[in-house]
Amino acid sequence: MMKKKTLLAVAMMLFAAASFAQEALWSGNGAIVSPEINSDNSVTFRLRAPKAARVQVTGDFLPTENRKFDNGMSYDFPGVADLTEKNGVWEFTSAPLPSELYSYSFIVDGLTTRDPSNIFLSRDVVSITNIFIIPGDPGDLYSVRDVPHGTVARRWYSSPTLGYDRRITIYTPPGYEASGKSYPVLYLLHGAGGDEEAWITLGRTAQIMDNLIAQGKAKPMLVVMPNGNATQKSAPGEDEQGLKTPANPFANRGAARPEPPYKPKSSYELAFPDIVKFVETNYRVEKKKSARAIAGLSMGGAHSLNISKEFPDLFDYVGLFSAATITFDMGDRQDNPIYQNIPQKLKTQFAKSPKLYWIAIGKTDFLYKANVDYRKLLDDNGYKYEYFENEGGHIWRNWRIYLAKFAPMLFNK
Amino acid sequence: MMKKKTLLAVAMMLFAAASFAQEALWSGNGAIVSPEINSDNSVTFRLRAPKAARVQVTGDFLPTENRKFDNGMSYDFPGVADLTEKNGVWEFTSAPLPSELYSYSFIVDGLTTRDPSNIFLSRDVVSITNIFIIPGDPGDLYSVRDVPHGTVARRWYSSPTLGYDRRITIYTPPGYEASGKSYPVLYLLHGAGGDEEAWITLGRTAQIMDNLIAQGKAKPMLVVMPNGNATQKSAPGEDEQGLKTPANPFANRGAARPEPPYKPKSSYELAFPDIVKFVETNYRVEKKKSARAIAGLSMGGAHSLNISKEFPDLFDYVGLFSAATITFDMGDRQDNPIYQNIPQKLKTQFAKSPKLYWIAIGKTDFLYKANVDYRKLLDDNGYKYEYFENEGGHIWRNWRIYLAKFAPMLFNK
Predict the structure, then answer these.
(1) Is A120's pLDDT higher than 80?
(2) Which of A163, A230, B21, B290 is 20 to 30 Å apart from A38, CA to CA?
């Protein structure tokens, strides 16, 4: 029989050997705790980097800098702060922070890197950052709580209209599998550059819905998160293109930027009924206009606007989050039927009195003016909508807020 | 109407603004392609780090170093190679590599960091590394191919025996939802330190099963991947403990190492029927011994050994991958009924003639000797099993191979 000491060693080896490379072990970062959320909700960041000359932290927890571009648009850039070094460990403590989900990265001698003491990461297009949550309101809404949890499934659906199968993320509410009941459905669309993972990871959709449903604030519903890029089948790495990191849209990768591998036979908007059909034949859902909602952010807001007017009998609830209503002006896209006869189609849609047409945008969003113009168009025609405006720009912080405000208004009219 | 040039700018802004921080933009890494798989299957790694004094790459694509420990056990440590610098860009090209899924990290002046040009990451306990795949055999089996895809669901099940609800990952095969048929089930268990994400991310289970099923080599089946740590409800970050990075088992975090937050009322092994019951009441599966398999790696191999003997009527197929058969010697755990009367329970199990009892291990695995001893015990009693031995140690490379060999043998006897 083995001795207890040996048993412990065996247990430790089992634990360690299960792991290819105990990163913190190699780098000597084992004893570092980062980020540490202090009792006053300030946050201390730490990094062991004895050879570094300068270590900075950048993230949306720091005051942002609003930069204007030549074309008149503006965007909030995250701030940067310097860490100070003592015995090889660099440290920075933030001001007390309002409750929120925040993102950050370290910059070590100019090289952006993750925090090796924090395994929680979030991918936004080709950017991967660490995350942390300051508890309270709204942070608790974005956190996993001790409440019943829904199921998140990644699966594939067939889109005959586009011409291929595509990946999709589907949230079913707690109790769905066993209840025997039919549920309403929110179709929730991402922005340009995003994919079918965006609302689940950056949007914290599963946590928001679990919590709102547990609090009785939202009805149990399915949330369907498709991939909104018609030339893609899936998020990077999830289809037969393999583990290819997409080109950064700002970087000149030249020949490294590939042509889209898939050539859709139609547009995403016109193909959307394929998704509705898939959901309504694969899930126990209510198949009627009053049990369908569509909402999206930025490009997904434009999708929601266009799909809901193109198919005016499908959706009784429409949400435009920081929507790219500027698509109205895209004269070069008039070959897509989606952009033809828009005023007439809106007239038809609003004549059918959708139960909720909800527009939300932040005051410094570069699409603010476009949304003012769009609301004027609706006002001029007497089309009924509801409007929510808050601080901030074109950022996930606002889109989580909009989802948390929109979901409770659904399916109760 | 906007001009085309403006439209392009708007499109670019939509794309960029959707992202909080275009990391490659900030770090100037946009034009870097890394890793680049060359035509001879060598791989070039690149990193822009003009201020760095030394840049290295470490990973399992480099020759490993087998280190022996005082207690007689050994483990394969990944190799390290130096990159060379030119105009601020560091570069290293490997030897031509055999087909495989590989992991790597950069080390910049001693700091382990991810490759900012590669968004594909894999978490192994608290270690996060980049990954890439060299095509061929077996790499193609681990890749997403243009074949029908199964569904991967993350959900929660109730374990009255342990005393709480727990998270679980479930693969359903292509066509499951619409077929109306009932399927057999493989219960697939992770090792110490792993969780319900390990087999899906590190094990590439969905890709292996999709591909084996498409090739007609494996029967369509469910694969159920529970969390095997009884004091956990879920992988880190997926329960109400929040975004807390677990302590590194090797690091002395002292007070930072928390007590397990949950106190199970029983052991994982004794509570396993809760999982079987959940699966058989929530999924369209065949509810009989000949349609149930259980397999696991390391600690999960010990779990498979013990659960299958404890409940000798449940599983007709058993797989021990690099199994921790040393649990037999754990004299300090005799308060757990699982470790009592083992010889008698094995006798009962084998008297019922399981259809397949499969043992696999690598020649340099630190559990090799323990497996020799266990096979001797089986041989001495005339218990029938099959055995597979290959090169290498206690690593995911082997566990993927074992899954790919085990799954085709299931449910056809």
Answers:
(1) yes
(2) B21
> Contact at 8 Å (CB) between A127 and B21?
yes
CB A97 within 8 A of CB B88: no
Q: Which amino acid is it at B241?
A: Q
Instruction: With CB atoms and an 8 Å threshold, state whether B253 touches A31.
Output: yes
Which among B310, B312, B308, B326 is positioned nearest to B374, based on CA atoms?
A: B326
- Options 2.102.10.10, 2.60.40.10, 2.30.110.20, 3.40.50.1820; CATH of B24-136: 2.60.40.10
| Length of chain A, in residues | 413
Q: Do B25 and A250 touch (CB under 8 A)?
A: yes
Query: Could you say which of A19, A53, A248 has the minimum Cβ distance to residue B24?
Result: A248
CA distance B124 to B193: 8
- pLDDT grade for B397, boundaries at 50, 70 and 90: very high
Strand partners, A320: A296, A359
Residue of B nearest to A118 (CA): B245
- In angstroms, the separation between the Cα of residue A401 and the nearest Cα of chain B is 15
Tokens read off for B383: 């218990």
Would you call B14 and A298 a contact, using CB atoms and an 8 Å cutoff? yes
Q: Which amino acid, one-letter code, is at B64?
A: T
Peptide bond connecting A174 to the previous residue in cis, omega within 30 degrees of 0 = no
| Average pLDDT, integer, range B64-74 | 72
Q: Decide if domain B146-237+261-409 falls under CATH 3.20.20.210.
A: no
Q: Are B171 and B225 in contact (CB under 8 A)?
A: yes
Task: Tell if the pTM clears 0.90, that is, is over it.
Answer: yes
- Tokens representing A286 are 């209510």
Give the amino acid at A84. T
Nearest to B390 by CA among B370, B408, B369, B364: B364
Tell me the chain B residues in contact with residue A68 when contact means C-beta distances shorter than 8 Å: none
User: Nearest-CA neighbor of B301 among B275, B334, B325, B330?
Assistant: B325
Q: What is the pLDDT of residues A212-223, one digit of tens each?
A: 999 999 999 999
* Per CATH, domain A21-136 is 2.60.40.10: yes
Above 0.95 for ipTM, yes or no? no
Three-state DSSP class for residue A55: strand
Nearest to A7 among B69, B145, B332 (CB): B332
Q: What is the DSSP string of A126-195?
A: TEEEEEEEE-STTGGGGS--SS---EEEEEEEEETTTTEEEEEEEEE-TTHHHH---B-EEEEE--TT--
Name every residue whose Cβ is closer than 8 Å to that of residue B5 and which is 6 or more positions away in sequence: none
